[in-house]
Specification:
There is one protein chain. Helix content is about 55%, strand content about 5%. With about 210 residues, the protein is mainly alpha-helical. The chain has a single domain (about 5-205), classed as Serine Threonine Protein Phosphatase 5, Tetratricopeptide repeat (Alpha Horseshoe), CATH 1.25.40. The protein has a two-stranded antiparallel sheet with strand order 1-2. The protein starts with 8 loop residues before the first strand and ends with a strand. InterPro entries: Sel1-like, TPR-like_helical_dom_sf.
Length: about 210
């Protein structure tokens, strides 16, 4: 395998939602310690995103919870309310049919888009990344690698992407591989890319 052929690459995951128990059924999430509602504005707590997030953290399987939450995340994206987090979680639950919102996401592109990211959203990413949520660890890692809102720090970005990737979040595994290639760690990058493929990512080398 030509190690450098893995940069750049893109992927589509077909395994975002399965019949496994939800990934947040233990630890700080089950105890109610994360997140603390007192840290967020009333508007945020009434948003479609937050309603969807609570649906996602129900007692059902991940597939069932995602199905219940998707309509809230989709509405959050279409209405532009808590857009960034709605797009982030829509991507988590997605079956591959919601690509366009990601092109308008500041978190994904690393550049300020029309909706931007507000204070509640940024605080949420920080809080839940530290609460060991793989989705927010992935988001924070991307932001650090790309220097969006935060100072660009590839090593710190790799750290948070690694935390998420070790929780089997396939999106983070691909992003981690990309960041590692930039740092010259092509052997480790190839291992993470292979792991992402095993977890259902379809990876295509860009020509």
């Amino acid at each position: 395998m030509n190690k450098m052929s893995i940069l750049p690459f893109m992927f589509i995951s077909l395994t975002a939602c399965s019949d496994e128990p939800t990934a947040f059924s233990s630890g700080a999430f089950s105890s109610g310690a994360c997140p603390s509602e007192t840290n967020y504005s009333p508007a945020f707590l009434k948003s479609d995103f937050y309603s969807g997030w609570k649906q996602l953290h129900g007692n059902g399987t991940r597939r069932a919870n995602c199905k219940a939450a998707m309509r809230y995340f989709s509405r959050g994206v279409s209405q532009g309310s808590v857009f960034e987090l709605s797009a982030l979680y829509l991507d988590y639950c997605d079956d591959g049919s919601h690509i366009l919102p990601l092109a308008n996401s500041s978190i994904y592109t690393g550049e300020k888009q029309e909706n931007g990211i507000d204070y509640d959203e940024f605080k949420w990413v920080l809080d839940l990344a530290l609460c060991d949520s793989p989705i927010e660890q992935y988001a924070l890692g991307n932001m650090l690698v790309k220097g969006f809102i935060t100072d660009k720090d590839i090593q710190k970005g790799i750290y948070f992407l690694s935390l998420s990737a070790h929780q089997e979040y396939v999106h983070a595994q691909v992003s981690l591989a990309q960041a590692l290639v930039v740092e010259g760690e092509t052997d480790v990058a190839a291992l993470w890319l292979e792991k992402a493929k095993e977890n259902g990512a379809h990876v295509f080398a860009a020509k």
